[in-house]
Amino acid sequence: MAEPLLCVEHVRKRFGGLLAIDDVSLAVMPGRITALIGPNGAGKTTLFSIISGFQRPEQGRVRHRGDDITGQQPFALAHRGIARTFQIVQPFAGLTVHENIAVGAHRSRRSRADALQAAADVARAVGLSGQLDRPAASLTVAGRKRLEVARALATEPELLLLDEVLAGLNPTEVDGMLPVIRALPGRGVTVVMIEHVMQAVMSLADDVFVLAEGRIVAQGAPREIVGNPKVIESYLGHGAAARLAGGGGARG
Question: Using an 8 Å Cβ cutoff, are 100 and 92 in contact?
Fold first, then answer.
């Protein structure tokens, strides 16, 4: 059986009097899409920040391929093959789409020509080939979300943390993004995604962890999660859970 690519072990993080993450443990298997869901304020982004080196836990460990990476700087984790996106998308507004993606590609390519070629390949994978020469500042919200994914992919990660890349998109735009995310494991990228769009979680995720009030309250396959009483009580509600169990979509 394959070993986990990423392990979070008994992680705890407090901000003043607020216990944001409380004894959280989870394992991410390689080649899969793992979703982290839960209500606003549950601690999901804080956990991402700990995994990606932007914050350090006061207790617990993060392991990548068995190595303790707790508290390592983001640039060091990028060299290990760990990348993330952010909820608030902030491209380099003065650069083109092509140049924005090439910034990530420069991590492993010294020449500008090589970085631009790699960026063009990534743009094709995320549906931005036709917009390479556009100023990044001119993109729609959906375009900026694709660009955020592309910039992370250009660093050639084996583990990609997606923080609400579908937030703010309309249903048609969400549908357009699903194939992009679904194709990532085929590129050798293991995905962990924070997401509130439950139709996407049901469609994409192999494994789901539910975080509420800083604790993991449930884990399992998507169909198991939507029928879990703790998940219904803490996050989904009975109406959404019933629609998802019946195959309908729900946006949370």
Answer: yes
